[in-house]
Amino acid sequence: MTSTYDTLLSRLQSAFDTLEEGADPVLRTSDRSDYQANGVMALAKRLGRPPRDVAEEILGRAELSGVAAVEIAGPGFLNLTLSPEFLAEQLTGLRDDDRLGIEAVTQTKTVVIDYSAPNVAKEMHVGNLRSTVIGDALARMYRFAGHHVVARNHVGDWGTPFAMLIEHLLDSGEGDDATLSIGDLDAFYKEARTKFDADDSFKERSRSRVVALQSGDPETLRLWRVIVDQSIAYLDLVYRDFGVTLTPNDVVGESFYNNMLSDVVTDLAAAGLIVESGGALCVFPPGFTNRDGEALPLIVRKSDEGFGYAASDLAAVRDRVDNLHADEMLYVVGVPQAQHFEMVFAVARMAGWLPERVRCEHVTFGNVLGPDRKMFKSRSGETVKLASLLGEAIERADAALQERNSDLDDAARTQLAVEIARAAIKYADLSTDRHHDYIFDLDRMIAFEGDTGPYLQYAHARLRSIFRRLGTPWESPVVAFSLDTPQERHLALGLLAFPEAFEASLATLQPHRLCVYLFDLAQRLTAFYDACPVLTSEGVLRDQRLALCDLAARTLSIGLSVLGIDAPEKM
RNA sequence: GCGGCUGUAGCUCAGCGGAUAGAGCAUCGGUCUUCGGAACCGAGUGUCGGGGGUUCAAAUCCCUCCAGCCGCACCA
User: Fold this and answer.
1) Strand B atom within 7 Å of A32 CB
2) ipTM, interface predicted TM-score of the complex
3) How far apart are CA A225 and CA A236, in angstroms?
4) What ranges do the domains of chain A cover?
5) Which CATH architecture has domain A4-82?
6) Which nucleotide is nearest to A536 (CA to C1')?
């Protein structure tokens, strides 16, 4: 079905086109009418005519009869009020559409989304939260839109940190390495790090160990494998706990690109892009300077002949374009890496590895802050582990559920607590503009009131309970939606706006737009719910209201699931 | 120094070229003998960091200043 917005837009567009080809009607939802078109003023300006005049002419040419009533207001706004017939028709269209008006794309693209990317030797912590949550939401949204998503979890399983770990492992005696738990590894990593920072000879040995790793020394690789295997198994558990779609198959870490790194250098050299500087092999993409105003290099091979992460990132670009046939590549990585990615993309373009047709974007995000507005840390000043974050959220959700003395048994209640906890954490992360930092406040995000994940889940569960109370399976009858109360109409308009909200959210890679939409819908819903009796109403009115409830429940369910948030049937 | 990001109601955040700047929380006041009250309705508060400029129209675009955060060659 054609969405309400698209229908209006195309009608208006035809009329605008007759005055100036391609003139933008600037169609928006409105608080003064259902929709408003603001494009007349700009057009009139270009035409050198009085705006209201132009508005009249557009009105005369737009085929809107049966669709919307239009009024010219103020300097030349077009205020559109949807006709009852059109509203009813659109709602009927939604009723029969599993996708609620969101059409699957006709051209399926292969979209490679690089996200999460923890370090395999460490436990996952808040620093990994946003990439994981935002990336997973984008992956789900792309899939729903009908694209082919290839998730890549570019874990840090290579290079100096790993060399450092192996070196430390040798120092302290390997022992029964097969029993190294991830908790041990985390402590182990910290020890190694401390030693690396304090001890120059250890640092040197680590650097040589990188080379051994990169050149495939068997003993080095054996130790490496031990650590990696355990880490991947651990990561999988965390992703499952959080309801993240990443699997071990998506783990394609830095190590994967190891055997492509020398080709990166050779091919860059062949293209005449490599410059040696201070013993390192570099590419100088134009437009990047350091603090002294000198050209800034992208170091592809370090002076110790080890490869840096620029090399593996370049190899990854080639792999994704050549072997995965990516039409679009997203890197969900924090903003501090902005310059690095700009340089990598620039070099890839210079080398001809990244064709113009491939959209390649660094999807940045801000920091997670504590209540003091500084980087979120535990009371003791340590980074907070995702497992403990979720654990605490689950405890609180569970406690809240127990207070409501529901009829759930322990197992069901615990499961529900998990779903609520995930929703709280994910929604808090997704619902603000990803560019901004946000303050992590568990009390607020897990509240059942306000703009929170649990509130949206509850809105959905309330609807589902209505249908449960019916006692018999309900199938939406053909109803003539008449929408006689303002709340019904308001809700209906909200339901019809789902496609544009979804599409805008996806097009801008900003999941928070979908969150804003869903919260607004939930508010319309509760207002409706309060003003319009459903089960106690009768006849066609009851059918109509049930149909609205059904649509709202489906919209919330799809909207939440596409964000990676569960929509429980019962709360 | 250069570059980037951020500065909107007491707090947390939407809005990013359109008509009186919105929501949640908190505060205050109401509603309803609940189709699940984990509800609804109403009220108040804003130099949209400051100052210039562009525009019929600026929180939104440009310049500048202030404040804060981040990045700026061999750690990823």
Assistant:
1) yes
2) 0.94
3) 17
4) 4-82, 253-365, 386-563
5) 2-Layer Sandwich (3.30)
6) B35
